[in-house]
């Protein structure tokens, strides 16, 4: 983690914008995946201290093994330009302004 933070600091001080952008994208995705794993692990440790929350600890333990790998795939998938463009198209199609609302009173 310290390595990625030091790379990010060097990129922020450097003048080469194209190289900085690529390096920061790589570091950001690795740091995001690491933060998700670290956060999930901390939740498990905290919940272990409270025996009356054992059911929550079980759910958190399952999520620790499911969420980070799923988020890892999403984070790295968004780096691929074709995937990112397809997701943008999907979200533009699902905007609330395009939802057709019918009047229930007119159907009576």
UniProtKB/TrEMBL annotation:
UniProt keywords, alphabetically: Membrane, Receptor, Transducer, Transmembrane, Transmembrane helix
Subcellular locations according to the entry: Membrane
Pfam family membership, one: 7tm_4
GO term, biological process aspect, one: G protein-coupled receptor signaling pathway
InterPro entries membership: GPCR1_Superfamily_Member, Olfact_rcpt
GO molecular function list: odorant binding; olfactory receptor activity
Mode of membrane association: Multi-pass membrane protein
A GO cellular component entry from the record: membrane
Transmembrane residue ranges: 23-47, 59-78
Record protein name field: Olfactory receptor 52J3
Taxonomic placement: Eukaryota, Metazoa, Chordata, Craniata, Vertebrata
């Amino acid at each position: 983690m310290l390595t990625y933070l030091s790379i990010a600091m060097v990129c922020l001080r450097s003048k080469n914008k194209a190289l900085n952008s690529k390096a920061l994208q790589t570091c950001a995705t690795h740091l995001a995946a690491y933060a998700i794993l670290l956060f999930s692990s901390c939740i498990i440790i905290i919940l272990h201290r409270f025996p009356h929350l054992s059911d929550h600890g079980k759910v958190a333990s399952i999520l620790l093994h499911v969420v980070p790998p799923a988020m890892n795939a999403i984070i790295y998938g968004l780096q691929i330009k074709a995937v990112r463009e397809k997701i943008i198209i999907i979200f533009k199609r699902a905007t609330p302004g395009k939802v057709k609302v019918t009047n229930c009173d007119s159907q009576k």
